[in-house]
Amino acid sequence: MSKTWNQPSQAALVKSLWPLYPGEDEATNTSQLRHRLNLLQTWFGDLTPTPKDLQDASILEIGCGQGDMTIPLAHFAGHVDAVDPAPLDYGSPFTLGQAQAQLSKHFGDKIRWIQQDPMDYIRSQKDSQSAPDVVVLANSIFYFASEGYLSSLLRELRAFGNGHNSGSLKLVVAEWGMRATNPAAEAHVLAAKAQAPNPLPDGNVRLVVTPEEIQRIAADGGWKLAKEHWIESPELDDGQWEVCLARETRRNGKEAPLLDEMERAVKKLEGKRVAAMDVWTAVFTI
């Protein structure tokens, strides 16, 4: 289990990049940025100097959202194609369109924003002369409609990789691991489980899958697990956010006992903040 990367070199990088995040909440933005730098390190190794697999690399990021992961990817890599089907007016208090426009001012053509279903985009690139070196799924699987969609997407990516870069395509994944090493994160796990049966229209949870399930789906699609790693980032605000969102769900099915259990977990904290659950990371090859 790895904790946040706290090397001195990271402090300067965080100081220079956090203002690119939407809003002016330095504490929230820096914690989100540190977490994503930690993801990069678990996937690619020490970030000083820039890892060979990242330097000048072409990245396909699926589910980029407002660009939380896109920022460090664009800083280290050669180019990022950032794909997300969400409308540009999605998000609050800052929309996807506003956040992406801000990043474009800084990174220019290093980022290409693509508002399209990822599956449709991949299929549209079959005759393209270029291909990414790395595909990134960073906290985006929970947004997918179903396991079937994830399965089809990974199969399409494998076929695309085989046809374009001799099977050298890498797939890197980070997702909430549905486990809480820190007891204060148990409410986050329960909040995610409670939202899955009836996802909120503007929520962050549609598909809850465990690392074991992701590995099975990836293996069925022809991907080989090269390495996996767990990260603790309890300081992230996502646990708090998901508990608040879970309280908006309907209590008319199997989510009701989960919501009750979530509230008991929150009560045990006696006013302390809900921590974020553990994050599972993995690297897959063809």
Could you characterize the architecture of this molecule?
It is a single chain. With 286 residues, the protein is of the alpha/beta class. It has a single domain (8-285), classed as 3-Layer(aba) Sandwich (Rossmann fold). Helix content is 41%, strand content 14%. The protein has helices spanning 8-17, 26-44, 70-76, 96-107, 118-124, 147-164, 186-195, 211-220, 238-246, 255-268; strands at residues 58-62, 79-83, 111-114, 134-138, 170-176, 224-231, 279-285. Strands 3-2-1-4-5-7-6 form a seven-stranded mixed beta sheet, sandwiched between helices. Strand 4 (134-138), helix 6 (147-164) and strand 5 (170-176) form a beta-alpha-beta unit. It is globular.
Put the structure in a nutshell.
The chain has 286 residues and is of the alpha/beta class. It is built from 10 helices and 7 strands. The longest helix has 19 residues.
Features:
10 helices, Rossmann fold, globular, SAM-dependent_MTases_sf, Methyltransf_25, alpha/beta, Methyltransferase domain-containing protein
Question: Helix and strand layout, with pairings?
Answer:
Blueprint: H1 8-17, H2 26-44, E1 58-62, H3 70-76, E2 79-83, H4 96-107, E3 111-114, H5 118-124, E4 134-138, H6 147-164, E5 170-176, H7 186-195, H8 211-220, E6 224-231, H9 238-246, H10 255-268, E7 279-285
Helix pairs in contact: 1-2, 5-6, 7-9, 7-10
Enter the CATH topology name: Rossmann fold
List the helices and strands in order. HHEHEHEHEHEHHEHHE
C-alpha Rg, in Å?
Answer: 18 Å
* Count of domains: 1
Major sheet attributes: 7 strands, mixed
CATH superfamily: Vaccinia Virus protein VP39
Q: How many β strands by DSSP?
A: 7
Structural class of the secondary structure composition? alpha/beta
InterPro entries: Methyltransf_25, SAM-dependent_MTases_sf
Protein name: Methyltransferase domain-containing protein
Pfam families: Methyltransf_25 (PF13649)
Domain Methyltransferase: 59-158
